[in-house]
Amino acid sequence: MWDVICIAASAAFFVLAIGYTLACERLGQRKAGGQ
Amino acid sequence: MTANGWFQIALFFGVILLVTKPVGIYMARVFERERTWLDPLLRPLERLIYRLTGVDETHEMRWTEYSIVMLVFSAVTLLVTYGIERLQHLLPLNPEKLAAVAPDLAFNTAASFTTNTNWQNYVPETTMSYLTQMVTLAYHNFFSAAIGMAVAVAFIRGISRRESKTLGNFWVDTTRASLWVLLPTCIVVALAFVSQGVVQNFRPYDHATLVEPQKVTTTDAAGKTTTQVVTTQTIAQGPVASQEAIKMLGTNGGGFFNTNSAHPFENPTPLSNLLQIIVIFIIPAGFTATLGRMTKSPNHGWAVFAAMAVLWFAGVLISYSAEAKPNPLLHGVDQRASLTQSGGNMEGKEVRFGIANSALFATVTTDASCGAVNSMHDSFMPLGGMVPLTNILLGEIIFGGVGAGMYGMLVFVIITVFIAGLMVGRTPEYLGKKIQAYDVQMSMLYVLVFPLIILSLAAISLLMPNWGLSSLANTGPHGLSEILYAFTSATGNNGSAFGGLNGNTHWYNMSLSAAMLFGRFFMMVPMLAVAGSLATKKVAPPSPGTFPVNTPLFTTLLVGVILIVGALTFFPALTLGPILEHLLMHSGRTF
C-alpha cells in the first residue's frame, strides 16, 4: 500500500512540475504578446 | 573568542579567496567548451558517453526543454533509488544483511538525495547497505550537484547570450560538470581524506570487546525498564572517504555515519576538518569568478563574491561570539577558555574541534546547502543556533550550494537591480539587459515559493499534536525552532538537522519529502524562466543612468535587499523561536 502511495506521489509531483513549467512559459508568451 | 580561533577562520577564508579565481576560470572553460588540460583524457570518454546514450551534443535547448528534461531525469533517478532501497535485502554488497528500507523512509531518502538535500531520517550504518550507499546515494551526490551546476551555468548563459532562444544542453552540462569538475576533484580529495585516517573498505563491521563492560538501562513503550550489561561494541566500516569527498564538494552533506562529520572515521583530524569546509566552498565561490568571466565582467563577479563574504563573516562572528560565551544557566562551572579547554558552550561539540571550528563549520555548512555537521546545532546557544537557521532562511545564497547558491544569488541581483531602477525612475538594466515585468514576476515567484512551503508546513505540524508534536523532544520556543529548522533545512535542500525531532514518522517522512521536492524544483523552474527570458534580449550600451553592478554601492544594496527580504519574511518566526529562547534564558528559563 505504502509503495503505491510513494510511487504515485512521485509521479504526481513531477507531472505537476512539468505543468508548472508550461504555465510559466505560457505567462511569458502572454507578456511577450502584450496581453 | 581566541586569537587561535580567529587565525583558523582567517586561514580558511584566505584559502577560499586564493582558489576562487582559478576554479572559476576553469569551470568557465569547461562549460564554454574551451580546451582544458584534462581534455586528452576526458574528451574521448565524453564522446563515448554521448554515443552510448544517443545524446546530440550540438543540440541547444530552450529553457522549457532544459527544465522538462531535468525534471524527467530527476523523476527516473528518484524512482530507481526508491526501488533499490526497497530491494536492498535481495541485492549484493550487504554484508550486514540489512533489511529493506521502509517505504515512507525510502521515499523520503530518495527525494532527499535527488534534491541534493541529504536529509537523513535514518541511521546510515544500520539502515543502508554498501550497495545502496554507493549506487544510489553517492550517485545522487554527484548528479544532484551536477544538475545544480548545469542550471547555474544555464542562468549565466541567459545573462551573457544576446538574442538567443537557447540556454545550452542539459545532458552536456551535467556530463561536463561531473567529468571535468566533480570526479577529478573527488579523487584528489578522497585520497587526502584517506591520508588523514578516513576509512575506505568493504569489510563487515568490527566487533570489539569492551575493556570495561557498560550497564545500559532502557525503557520500552509500556514503561517497563530493562537493564543489560553490554560487553562488545560494533564499529561500523565502509567506503567512507569516497563518499565523504563528494558529500562536501557537491554540498550534499549526507553522512556515511549517523554522527556525520563528528565521527572520527569521517572527520578524524583538525586538518581533515579544515579541508572539509574548504571543499564545501570551493565550487560555490568559484562560480562568482565563472559569472565574471562568462559575462565578461570580472568585477561584477567580485562584487557578488564580496556580498557573499560579508554575510558569511557576519554569520561566523555572531555564531562564534554566542558559542564562546559561558552559558549563564550553568553556575559554578569553569567555562573560561584556557590551555586545557576551549571554554564557552561545549555541549554537543567535539573536543578536538572546539568552539571556533564548530561555529565555523555550522556557518559554512548552512551558508552552502551542504548540511554536513561536526557539532549538534540543537545544543548551540539560542543566538548561535539562530545563525545556521537564518543562513538557510536567507535562501542559501551565501556562496550557497554548488550552482544553487549562484542562481539563488542572481535572482536577488535581479531584484536589487529592479529596486535600484525604481529608485532613480529608470527601466532597470542588468549588464545591459532590460529587466521587465515577467523577469520580476518569475524572480518573486522564486522568492515566495520558499517561505510558503516552510511556514505552511511548519504551522500545520505545530497545530497537529498527534502528527507534528508527538516526536518532538523539546517544548516552548526551542521546540518551535526544531520544527522550523526541519522544514527550513528540507525546503532549502540543506539537510542538516537541528536535532530534537524524530523525523522518521509517516507525517515527517512525507511532509519533508514534499518540502524537499517543491523547494528544489518549484524554485528552479521560475529561475530557468528568467534565464530564458534574459537570453532573448538585446544588450543596450551603458548610459549615465545605468546602475553599475561592479561597485561597493551595488554590493551594499545587494546585501541590504537580501537581509530585508529575509527579515520581512521570517523575523516573526525567529522571534517566537531562538530570539524568545535567548531572552527567556537570561531570565533563568530553559527548554
Give the mean pLDDT of chain B.
92
Assess the beta-strand content of chain A as a share of residues: under 5%
Contiguous helical run count of chain B: 18
Biggest β-sheet of chain A, characterized? none
Instruction: Measure the end-to-end span of chain A.
Output: 47 Å
Count the E strands of chain A.
Answer: 0
Residues in helices of chain B, as a percent range: 55-70%
Give the topology string of chain B: H per helix, E per strand: HHHHHHHEEHHHHHHEEHHHHH
Category from helices, strands and their pairing of chain B = mainly alpha
The end-to-end span of chain B amounts to 26 Å
Largest interface: A-B, 21 and 37 residues
Rg of chain A: 15 Å
Strand order in the largest sheet of chain B: 1-2
Point out poorly predicted stretches of chain A. Answer: none
Features:
heterodimer; A: 35 residues; mainly alpha; 1 helix; 89% helix; 0% strand; B: 591 residues; two-stranded antiparallel ribbon; 4 strands; globular
Provide structural commentary.
The complex is a heterodimer of chains A (35) and B (591). Chain A has one helix at residues 2-32. Chain A is an all-alpha fold and 35 residues long. Chain A is rod-shaped, with a radius of gyration of 15 Å. Chain B has 591 residues and is mainly α. Chain B contains 18 helices and 4 strands. In chain B, the strands form 2 sheets. In chain B, strands 1-2 form a two-stranded antiparallel ribbon. In chain B, α12 (382-393) packs parallel to α16. The longest helix of chain B has 35 residues, at 552-586. The interface between A and B is medium-sized, with 21 and 37 residues.
What's the arrangement of secondary structure elements?
The complex is a heterodimer of chains A (35) and B (591).
Chain A lengths: L1 H31 L3
Chain B lengths: L2 H29 L7 H15 L9 H25 L15 H12 L9 H4 L2 H31 L9 H27 L9 E14 L5 E11 L4 H10 L20 H25 L3 H27 L29 H14 L14 H12 L10 H21 L4 E2 L2 E2 L2 H27 L1 H5 L6 H16 L14 H30 L16 H35 L5
Antiparallel strand pairs in B: 1-2, 3-4
Helix pairs in contact in B: 1-9, 1-11, 3-4, 3-6, 3-17, 4-17, 6-7, 6-13, 6-17, 7-8, 7-9, 9-10, 9-11, 10-11, 10-12, 10-18, 11-12, 12-16, 12-18, 13-14, 13-18, 14-16, 14-17, 16-17, 16-18
